[in-house]
What does this fold into?
Amino acid sequence: MKEIKSKLVEAIKATYPEATEKDYEGNRLDFYVNKQCVPSVLTYLKSGLGYIHLSHIAFVDWLEEGEFELIYIVWSPSEKLKVFIRARVERENPLMPNIENIWRQANTYQREAREMYGIQFESFDAPQDLMLEDWEDIPPMRRDFDTEAYANKTYFHRSGREDALDVREAIIERSREEIPDFAKKYSR
Amino acid sequence: MINDKNSQKIVDIIQNWARKHSLFVLAYGTGCGAIEIPPTMTSRYDAERFGIRGAATPRQADVLLITGYLTTKTLKRVIRVYEQMQDPKYVIGFGSCTINGGMYYDSYNTIKVLDKYLPVDVYINGCMPRPESVISGFVKLQQLIADGKADGATKYKENLDYYRANQKKIIPNWVMPEYNW
It folds into this structure.
């Protein structure tokens, strides 16, 4: 596995010197690339190095840094290695290159990104609604979308669960476990 | 024809007795609760001994089960299905999500209180309700039918404006046929 990984790092670095890699235990290897290079890196991986399967495109909202991260996960059946291609795009008017012509199944993931995060893709003309219908608010999977406030505004609620206690407080009482600071702002 | 009040009562009793022993449930699951229906129907719990069995289309069905969370997108289809069903028709709300939102109380895409949008005859609580409680809910519905109290469909017809206003509040793009029963 080590040899396969170092060979791949060499091959990628030779063509894309600005790409940085991060090694993980097991059969996983990450590359950080610019968003403009994504289609060419993926084409190179697919046709040149045998990474023929696109497993998934994942999306991360880095709200504090003002960026979205797109993670293209590709798999090689011969090398048994998962390669994660990570690219960042600014949060204001995000525009990513379209990879639909490399893998057709990217169409569905890109539609999901467009609907749930508002990430647009170049010359991408798929039908509008995927999972939502007649959505008018900001895309719901963005972290600045307050889902509870939206639910309170839009839907009826049955009274009787106002006294619902935060489970974490009960856990502290029982096990004297400390809540980390970052988790405190999420407790009710 | 029956004009006499007492004779009408006897006819109602016979009619309700017949209705309560043949509940055809529409095979339509909205949330995770639909997974509890196969064990309820098959040999271990065998709901058919109560006269409960599946129906393929809305026009043949008597009971609409809302099994679990109901998204706004599915609500549109559920309303369409409910309005196509023929009288007598009953709605069973199944699981905590239909009662008060359950674990999806803060979800942006699921309704929290089902009886604002459709007339519910029986609620079964639990997350998920086991087949025993599903059967007990059906038995409760049978009692209501026998007493002539399962009148959700009449309620819907009489208060259609109220239900329509609530439905249109969360379905802004309303492209549905208007039925006049």
In short: The interface with chain B takes residues 131-134, 136-137, 140, 145, 147-148, 150-151, 154-158, 160-161 of chain A (CB under 8 Å). Chain A has one domain: 2-136. The mean pLDDT of chain A is 88. The two ends of chain A are 46 Å apart (CA to CA).
